[in-house]
Amino acid sequence: MTPPHATNRQNSLDFTRIATFREHERYLARMAGRLTQQREEERSLMNGRESFPVPGYCYACQRPSVFSVDFQDAYEVDGVLTPNWRERLICSHCGLNNRIRAAVQIFDVECKPQATDSIYITEQTTPLFAWLRNRYQNLVASEYLRDWVEPGTSNAQGVRNEDLTNLTFSGRSFNYVLSFDVLEHIPDYRAAFSEIFRCLCPGGALLFSVPFRLDSPHKGTLKNCAKARGSVNFEC
Fold it and tell me: How far is 149 from 9, CA to CA, in rounded Å?
């Protein structure tokens, strides 16, 4: 069953739509005070511990949860070793991290998918795939297994092999295509986009995330989430 669309404060998510690097610079300047406060709140949770729980509400589970945080993939912020909040704030129930929970919520709120929609996601061995499989009956998933498995077929573990630059699906096969932090690993990403759009039904949408940098108009480290019908940029 698809999670209900945002109808209360716990399910709400503030969107900031940013189309250019200059707009992003203006956003950072406008939010400087709030971002400083956020850093202080995050550091108060750390308290010198190697790992720690953070109570909260999980949109994917639709219930209160406890999120585990550690210093895997941590980085320094103003000289302070800081958890990778985007990747390591993990729900104790569904196992989804902060970035993926945000992507799930954006998919639900922006795209409003139905349980019967045909959906293709470019991952099959992750907690996100398991979460989606229980909610969408026409879900197709895959991994890139290189030449070990014939394209369009599955290995002994049931994992389907697909190359995003040369998909085996017929045209207009899916209402939605989901791909999170995958496209940046594909040198010929233009071919991948072309294949994705070939496989989308009329009016369908692609929702994807890629890393990009805060300090450059060309490359970066935040997460950008965009649809075929427009762009949705979000920080997790």
Answer: 46
Answer yes or no: are the C-beta atoms of 202 and 195 closer than 8 Å. no
- Prediction pTM value: 0.86
- Convert the pLDDT of each residue in 98-112 to its tens digit: 999 999 999 999 999
Q: How far apart are CA 168 and CA 154, in angstroms?
A: 12
**3-state SS of the chain?**
CCCCCCCCHHHCCCCCCCCCHHHHHHHHHHCHHHHHHHHHHHHHHHCCCCEEEEEEEECCCCEEEEEEEECCCCEEECCEEECCHHHHCEECCCCCCHHHHHHHHHHHHHHCCCCCCEEEECCCCCHHHHHHHCCCCEEEECECCHHHCCCCCECCCCCEECCCCCCCCCCCCEEEEEEECCHHHCCCHHHHHHHHHHHEEEEEEEEEEEEECCCCCCCCCEEEEEECCEEEEECC
C-beta separation of 174 from 200 below 8 A:
yes
Q: Is the pLDDT higher at 182 or at 19?
A: 182
Which among 104, 106, 179, 101 is positioned nearest to 143, based on CA atoms?
179
- Contact 71/51 with Cβ under 8 angstroms? yes
pLDDT tens for 132-157 read 999 999 999 999 999 999 999 999 99
- φ, ψ of residue 72 to 5 degrees: the values are -65, 130
